[in-house]
Amino acid sequence: MKIGLAGIGKLGTAMMTHWHKSSLPIGIYHPDRSKAEQFAEKFPNGSPLTEDELKQVDIILLALPAGKVISFMESMFPEESSIVFINMATALPTKSIRERFPSCKVYGLKYMGHSRDLMENGNGLFISEEQLPDPIVDLIKPLGEIVKDSEERLVEVNKLATFFAVKTAVEIENDFISKDYPPAYIKRALASLAPEVIRSYSEGTLGHFAQEIVKEIKESTKKAAD
User: Fold this and answer.
1) Tens-of-pLDDT digits for all 226 residues of the chain?
2) Distance (Å, whole) CA 36 – CA 44
3) What is the pTM of this model?
4) Strand 124-128 and strand 110-112: pairing?
5) Crossing angle (nearest 10°) for helices 194-203 and 208-225
6) For residues 182, 186, 192 and 196, what is the CA-based torsion angle, rounded to 10 degrees?
7) Among candidates 117, 116, 122, 110, which has minimal Cα distance to 157?
8) What secondary structure does DSSP assign to 187-214, as a single string?
9) Of 20, 14, 28, whose CA–CA distance to 44 is shortest?
10) 84, β-bridge pairs
């Protein structure tokens, strides 16, 4: 099947990184032809597509910002199309696209996590509300796994994770500033120390020092609850 990718930002780059490793041929579309060509040069499995060529593919992954998906489809495709569209915009409900294009086949497939993590580590987690056709499932296998859940749940998880991450970052920054630590220390804590500790915690690989801190926090939380 002919696969097209519309959107060569962070998510598009992350997905192409792993499709390249699996030698999956992907057509690349960008309204600026030179940008599509420059992007394709990084991934030999990718080839730039013209507008006419994009309209001939079987599946298009819409890795575009939420505010640009519908306008992109309106400008490029007729009301009826045999193409299968994959909505990957976290903040755009798939039902909104279906309401605008009732005659088109549209599936929602949202990535849970940060695109940089997907690019560097693979093993991503994707959410879809419905059973996807086998060609789409096969397309995602090199990227990670697909879990069936609601798009609303994905938005909630992203908001919660972002809230607590930003809250922690602000608290670290404020505390370091109050202790008059150098800016380089603050940057290192935010860019390296805290993220790697969180990663180790999630993987169960914390060192002894960090494990003792976890123990203290849990004991303190338990006492507060009692």
Assistant:
1) 899 999 999 999 999 999 999 999 999 999 999 999 999 999 989 999 999 999 999 999 999 999 999 999 999 887 778 999 999 999 999 999 999 999 999 999 999 999 999 999 999 999 999 999 999 999 999 999 999 999 999 999 999 999 999 999 999 999 999 999 999 999 999 999 999 999 899 999 999 999 999 999 998 888 877 7
2) 12
3) 0.86
4) antiparallel
5) 80
6) 130
7) 110
8) HHIIIIIHHHHHHHHHHT---HHHHHHH
9) 20
10) 59, 105
214 to 22, 28, 204: CA distances (angstroms): 40, 46, 12
* Structure-token match 């013209």, residue found: 50
* Residue the block writes with tokens 């693979």: 122
Cβ(27)–Cβ(2) below 8 Å: yes
- Among 16, 13, 51, CA closest to 32: 51
The span from the first CA to the last CA of the chain, in angstroms, equals 60
Tell me whether strands 84-87 and 124-128 are parallel, antiparallel or unpaired: unpaired
